[in-house]
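Throughout this chapter, every protein is written as a compact record of paired, labelled lines. An example of such a record is reproduced below:
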Amino acid sequence: MAFIKKIFLKKRIILFISVAVLFLLLHSTPNTALRTKVFFMGYPKAALTSPIIDDVYHNEVDKDQFAEMNAKAYTLTKPPIEKATQGELRNYVVKRLGFIYFAEYYGEG
């Protein structure tokens, strides 16, 4: 019985480490964090194919706010279209927390 518990514990540890490594890989750069966000928003095609560029306008206008947040704005050049409103999900802000990045939809404004 102790042998089975050891195997079960090893499998749980391997699963935990695998999930942690996957999370770190998906949030290791601003681009991968942004693509991960778009993918989990329900737009896998746009997440994998849309080119990402710096959002020069928002980075300049909101420079002070972004500096406080340790963030930068990015734009998808081929953004997904939101199903409910038919609006383009173009602009995102990516925040850096330590050595990982998290993306949020920023809107058009």
